[in-house]
Specification:
The structure holds 2 protein chains of 2 kinds. Chain A is α/β, with parallel strands linked by helices. Chain A has one helix at 104-126; strands at residues 12-13, 31-41, 47-52, 55-60, 74-83, 89-98. In chain A, strands 2-3-4-6-5 form a 5-stranded mixed beta barrel.
């Protein structure tokens, strides 16, 4: 029931299309939040593949409980990126949830506004 | 220091909440941009950690994409000297509500949290008075937009202008 109560890294929201070199978020151990439509899920390996337009990402879901996987549904995962020896990325998910019904356009537009706001606030605080 | 927001549950994104200025007093007080003295906050995000000690507390963290907000929901109503001075029936009811809320907070769920801003080992946290689990998948996005709108149109304005604008802001959805 219980899990770690110690400080955990926030998962930086990133679009799958931006998750490739030379993005600073494409780094082993980076804590990320990703979103996409479930394309495949293997019960044997617990690896899921999500897609967003023409980009895709493998998700290791072995630590997730109480989450059912339905191909074609939209899922959000937070976890750490692992870069495999062949330079392929895999997200080791800490948490995941089904977000069917999420307005994806609103999500991506709002995310841009949040990032812009963070830059403004950081600049304001440093003056 | 402007105290007009002192009793308001100020909606803040995690990165703003976690960088509130703390006074060196005991208990510490908190200020937003060294302009507004604030004591309460509302945060919303995905529950990414959970530590439950039945009869003592539930510690959890919500991640809104800009940071992780540590939260503590006290469940020590049976042993706390504070509650020992109150009517047992009332304390039982408060404990039932708190335990009910604690059971809703699960890893991966989206929680809207209200409470007092406190400090634990120098880090800002929320001592929770109310937590609800959001079912709407758009709740987090709408919270982001609420925070941005309030920061620009309300929290950054002088008191007189803020009083005029306050009626436009959905601050009391939970009450």
């Amino acid at each position: 029931m219980a899990s770690s109560g110690s400080a955990v890294e926030s998962g930086a929201p990133v679009s799958l299309k931006d998750l490739r070199p030379p993005s600073p978020l494409f780094a082993d151990g980076a804590s990320l939040r990703v979103l996409g439509k479930l394309q495949e899920y293997s019960v044997e390996t617990t690896v899921a593949i999500i897609v967003d337009r023409d980009a895709s990402l493998k998700i290791d879901t072995q630590h997730l409980r109480d989450l059912s996987f339905r191909v074609g549904s939209i899922y959000q995962f937070i976890g750490e990126l692992r870069i495999q020896p062949d330079n392929e990325a895999l997200l080791q998910a800490r948490v995941g949830r089904n977000v069917d019904g999420l307005d994806l356009d609103l999500y991506h537009q709002s995310l841009q506004l949040v990032r812009q706001f963070q830059v403004e606030r950081t600049r304001y605080r440093s003056t | 220091m402007d105290k007009s927001l002192f009793l308001v549950h100020v909606k803040l994104l995690a990165f703003d909440l976690l960088s509130l200025a703390q006074s060196p007093t005991n208990p510490p007080t908190f200020s937003l941009d060294h302009r507004f003295s604030i004591s309460r906050a509302e945060a919303l995000g995905v529950v990414v950690s959970r530590e439950h000690k039945p009869g003592r507390f539930l510690k959890f963290a919500v991640d809104d994409g800009t940071g992780c907000v540590p939260c503590v929901l006290w469940l020590n109503h049976a042993t706390s000297p504070y509650f020992a001075r109150q009517r047992p029936q009332g304390v039982r009811q408060i404990a039932e509500v708190a335990n009910g809320q604690a059971s809703l907070v699960k890893l991966g769920s989206v929680a809207r949290v209200r409470g007092r801003i406190t400090s634990y080992r120098g880090e800002v946290q929320i001592t929770v008075s109310r937590v609800v689990v959001e079912r709407d998948p758009n709740a987090e996005v709408l919270h982001w937009l609420d925070c941005l709108k309030l920061a620009r149109r309300v929290y950054g304005k002088p008191t007189t202008m803020r009083n005029t604008l306050h009626g436009l802001c959905p601050m009391d959805k939970m009450t």
